[in-house]
Design goal:
InterPro entries: Rossmann-like_a/b/a_fold, U-box_ubiquitin_ligases. By secondary structure, this protein is α/β, with parallel strands linked by helices. It has one domain: HUPs (Rossmann fold, 3-Layer(aba) Sandwich). The chain is built from 7 helices and 7 strands. It has a 7-stranded mixed sheet with strand order 6-5-4-1-2-3-7, sandwiched between helices.
Amino acid sequence: MQRVMSQKEQPDGQACQLVAVAVDKDKSSHAAFRWALDNVVTKGQTLTLIHVNTKSGHGDDARDVFVPFRCFCTRKDVYNKDVILEDTDVAKAIIGFVADAAIEKLVVGSSSSRGGFVRSFRNSDISTNIYKGVPDFCTVYLIHKGKVSSMKNAVRPAPAFSRLQKQIQGLSSVRPDSLDHSHKNDMKDRNFLMPSEAAFAPRNLQKEDELIK
């Protein structure tokens, strides 16, 4: 059973920040994910993976997006929490989630060295909207080919209460097969779906490794 540490149990006895990565099937988001693992999360921490599903009725396809990321979290001893946001406006969905969940660090893949967002969204304004729109308590990193292309530091602390952090802590005492999936929409105002059944599925590390290359 996967156990998620609470913040008080994190390394050095310090509370770890809530870190999220926007993910998709695009190579840019894979590079951003790997950068986040190497630079902004530590062993035992939980990394939140955010995917915006812009096509209604494609829930299974949306959940499949997370598959190749899990083996890398396992290798780094990092826990992953999968989030599916249902919205046709990608930037608005991510900004809203960051605000609701009190995310303190957000990592976004860029297909351009000037900070363009992942190519699959086909909208050069998305990264700019995210960059400008996230709350000022969140540090934003735009990653291009494994390097930071743009960064905006937080200017104030995040809210002390986070519903996402409460969920992460709660998973430590809940058996995977006892999760009440009828409560997936506990943040209905943002169509926040958590956790997916696949998050606790047996892992084929070799296969997933090949998918993310």
